[in-house]
Amino acid sequence: MKKSFVILASAVLLAGCSGIGTHLPKSAEYRTEDPAVDSMLQSIRLIWATSELNSIMVVKDGKKILEYYDCCYGPDFMNICWSASKTFTATAVGFAVQDGLLDVKGRLVDYLKPEQLPRNVSDTLAGLTLYDLLRMSSGLKTDPIGQTSCGKLKTPALTVLESGFENMPGEKYRYNSMNTYLLGVAVSNVTGMSLEDYLNEKLFKPLDIRKYHWDKSAEGYNTGGWGLYLPTESMAKMGIFMLNRGVWNGRRLLNDEWFDEATKVQIRQYHGKGYSEERIAGLQDNDFNMGYGYQVWMNSVGGFRLDGAHGQFVMVLPEHNAVIVLTGNVGNTGPEMKAMWKYLLPLVE
After folding, report:
1. Of 18 and 327, which is predicted with more confidence?
2. For residue 116, what is the DSSP state?
3. DSSP code of 202?
4. In degrees to the nearest 10, what's the CA dihedral of 316, 318, 323, 328?
5. CB 298 within 8 A of CB 314
6. 188-222 burial, b if ≥16 CB within 10 A, otherwise e?
7. What is the CA radius of gyration of the chain?
8. Is 316 strand, coil or helix?
9. Long-range pairs for 282-291: beta carbons < 8 A, 24 or more residues apart
10. Cβ atoms within 10 Å, residue 111
11. Residue 135 predicted with pLDDT over 50
12. CA 168 and chain centroid, separation
């Protein structure tokens, strides 16, 4: 997506939004410039000719120590989170579980409306659980994210479920954004609220996140797996909330048990692919193969992350009591992460 288009789209989204909300405190070492930023910028320019790093925020012990914005961006800019949206949807599931409305091991079919289900529900579909969706092991055959985003699919939930399965649920890891869409549908159905309204009540208001937008599908549900827009600092607040395992300003919002499960390895990316032990050993220092929790990725340096296309990252680093946020338009995010560990991680160590 070209920078001019992103800026225009975000300007439209900002219309009618209230203020950004309370800001995170600044540390005594707070700065907006740092040699690490210059090195990071130079590094990603060497990765891909069209790389853009729009913002960086580094938070240590709950305080901002570094805040950087490219000249075309700023604190109020609404970043498209892409698949970092997924972690927000999973967190909504956590709140619904806490409210007694969902069960992680519950069947998806029990949380959908009759019109969202195929006329003949197969045994395989009947056995599909929210747990399978949360850890990307649904086995569903199709992932029509583009058609859902543009509104071409009028009934995305039904369409995906009617397409059937390529694997049995739980059998194999396969990244599929419609897994998250279906989780969002389940949350909306049991709460009687849109996904964004439910999260506004449970998460955004307590964290004083006032600016947000979440795209909707043609059937009226927030897209769940993508389409959430937030300022950089609001993304950092989400990281701190998860770092503190559901506590915000001394108040527990989401139970500790949720984070015991959500932020640990629930499945490996190579699960079910029949790789040899030798090949698996060669994969285990790669940020994309360290394991997957409930819509979060594990990091090679420890901790976990919210991960969106083109370099939208919220790195949660419990060992350092820190959060690092990056937003941008980067063509090769693997080397971008390696550059981040090299240049930004030392700031919190």
Report:
1. 327
2. G
3. I
4. -30
5. no
6. bbbbebbbbebbbebbbeebebbbbbbbebebebb
7. 20
8. strand
9. 286/334, 287/334, 287/337, 287/338, 288/334, 290/265, 291/265, 291/266, 291/267
10. 21
11. yes
12. 25
